């Protein structure tokens, strides 16, 4: 699980940039640095004060080839990211110097770091727990302020604390059971029984609150996939452009303008949306458009959120009504566009079909109603719960699964308690619940899962 070698990687993205950083971690870090670094006067440097940037050059020790002008810093274990000796070489941010220096570092005895290996070491050395380590990747990939806040909260341990809080309750219950099993041959006494039930209900509530956060958490981490669907010419592409505040999609008064799916990332009040503008749905003989319409139907099925758009000035047809029927059971919004024109729709009939789904009247031509639409999108993402930085969120499927599993075991335990089953049974269920929770923080996680998690990291982190 843990290889002892000193590892190295390029930690900055490959491309052209002001600076690029090569990171080295492990026992030999400083030795390697010493072998390739020279000071301004081309002297080897023996005395390295930790955490102090030093100006100099990287020089090939055998060929004396000068590779780049750099700043280098040595950080001494254990107060580093990996809790090992760590070196950073800041060189010019081009592919050639970065690759040449990395090659030289490897030549001097470092091994190429695997994806996420620095963070994996931070976890294995106890600097971060597993959910914190996972948050590092979320921090890097966050697309909006709110997603970033959630990742930062997880990195700071808000989720871990919540999980450990539940583990504490379970531990207390287990301790009670232990005592009861040890000291009494007879049935469990009423006081202990009461106590255990009371605690288990408290644990169950905490589990449920946490699991409720998973929907919003997933959206904040991965974005809400939002499909704009509707008949041709209703203004779908105009909406995409309005939300993006740029002329991304072609808009014309010719029905069937959009023929393929247009995908864009959008930030609405901090919520990342992956927005999909689709081909207007209609019967068509055009082969290309036909495929587009088929795709629109697929997008309609796959979206987390459906924006169904209608044109206020046109009577709805059968198909529109069919769509309205279907979205009743979906996370969906109905947008009535072109309210600047004379209205031909039967608003009451629409309302009676969609029930409590939000109907938003807008005019993209007159720039009216966008605010209300953004309010609605925000509300739908949080499902009315709002967002607080201090709140723990489940943002990844692995955590959700582990916590759901934990809840299931707890519920088994409660059932066993209520049915006055022998306490050993309850004990097994509670231990299972405790272990499932431990998968979140990494206390009880298997090596395969660990490998799998860090495989999704980038190199050099
Ligand atoms: N009067 C009026 N016209 C609008 C409004 N919004 C969009 N339009 C016009 O409606 C026409 C169609 O707009 P698009 O955005 O291309 O419609 P679409 O739904 O993407 O159409 P397809 O791609 O063909 O499915 C264009 O001429 C727009 O300028 C509105 O609020 N009022
Ligand atoms: Mg269009």
From TrEMBL:
EC number, UniProt record: 3.6.-.-
GO biological-process terms attached to the record: tRNA methylation; tRNA wobble uridine modification
Top-level taxon: Bacteria
Transmembrane segments: none
Subcellular location: Cytoplasm
Binding site for Mg(2+): 237, 258
Gene Ontology MF terms: GTP binding; GTPase activity; identical protein binding; metal ion binding
CDD domains reported in the protein's UniProt record: trmE, TrmE_N
Binding site for (6S)-5-formyl-5,6,7,8-tetrahydrofolate: 23, 88, 127, 461
A Pfam entry, by short name: TrmE_N
Binding site for GTP: 233-238, 252-258, 277-280
InterPro entries tied to this protein: G_TrmE, GTP-bd, GTP-bd_TrmE_N, GTPase_MnmE, MnmE_dom2, MnmE_helical, P-loop_NTPase, Small_GTP-bd
Major subcellular location class: cytoplasm
GO CC terms of this entry: cytosol
Signal peptide from the UniProt entry: none
PROSITE patterns, per the entry: G_TRME
The entry's keywords: Cytoplasm, GTP-binding, Hydrolase, Magnesium, Metal-binding, Nucleotide-binding, Potassium, tRNA processing
TrmE-type G domain span: 223-382
Cofactor: how bound: Binds 1 potassium ion per subunit.
Cofactor: K(+)
Binding site for K(+): 233, 252, 254, 257
Oligomer status and interactors: Homodimer. Heterotetramer of two MnmE and two MnmG subunits.
Known function: Exhibits a very high intrinsic GTPase hydrolysis rate. Involved in the addition of a carboxymethylaminomethyl (cmnm) group at the wobble position (U34) of certain tRNAs, forming tRNA-cmnm(5)s(2)U34.
NCBIfam families per UniProt: mnmE_trmE_thdF, PRK05291.1-3, small_GTP
Family: Belongs to the TRAFAC class TrmE-Era-EngA-EngB-Septin-like GTPase superfamily. TrmE GTPase family.
Name of the protein this chain belongs to: tRNA modification GTPase MnmE
Gene name as annotated: mnmE
